[in-house]
Amino acid sequence: MRTHGWSGAPPADDDEAMARILAATRVCLDRSGADTGLADVARELGVTRQTVYRYFKSTDQLLVATSIDASAGFLERVEQHLARRRGTPAELVVEGLAFTLEQLPREPYLGLLLTPGRLSAFSQGVTSTTALALGRAMIERYPIDWSVHGFDDHALDELVEQTLRLTQSFVIDPGTPPRRGRALRDYLTRWLAPAVSAHGLSPRSV
User: Fold this and answer.
1) Which of 4, 44, 65, 89 has the fewest CB atoms below 10 angstroms from its CB?
2) Which 8-state DSSP code applies to residue 152?
3) Whole-prediction pTM
4) What parts of the chain have a pLDDT lower than 50?
């Protein structure tokens, strides 16, 4: 690992270097939004552009990595939100999706991945590796023993895909007027919950 620059305090190893690059990118995103580039991050760190390039080969790769890194806090909030609830898998999937849609405007880093634009995880398709990995990480935090309810890995992957497709649809076109609160949950209960219930075992509280 090269130690030149870093504002006089070089990182101890590559892991620390990457963590500092991601942290600096968040600072730049707060300041400049999605217009942030590798050169901006390099200036923030006091290193050359080539130093950042050693770890991230493009601006898009850097910003996607930063967004995924920052999404950990959001995933924890989803987990905490659902931990206070009890219900069938269908009910919890509905609540998890509704909560996600409601929180996206408050999640600027996650918004880079889940809103239309060149950095969106959807820009390569709703079934991109990035989108599926993020969705799987989220759904595995639900307070549900998926295997007990008849969901194997393949079924979970398909459930993630379906919720991502719905998320994409709501993000691109929220509706006129946009559904929120009880109206959003009632809609998802009518059109999403039956599919979840039909796949699993007989509904019961978890």
Assistant:
1) 4
2) -
3) 0.77
4) 1-3, 122, 202-206
What are the φ/ψ torsions at residue 173 (nearest 5 degrees)? Answer: -140, 95
Structure-derived torsion over alpha carbons of residues 197, 203, 205, 206, reported in degrees to the nearest 10: -60
pLDDT at residue 182, rounded to an integer? 97
Domain 6-57 classified CATH 1.10.1740? Answer: no
Domain-by-domain residue ranges, the chain?
6-57, 71-199
Torsion sign over Cα 124, 130, 131, 132: positive
Taking a C-beta distance cutoff of 8 angstroms, is the pair 199, 155 a contact? yes
98 three-class SS: helix
Q: Are 82 and 92 in contact (CB under 8 A)?
A: yes
154, 115 contact by CB (below 8 A): no
Sign of CA dihedral 91, 97, 103, 107: positive
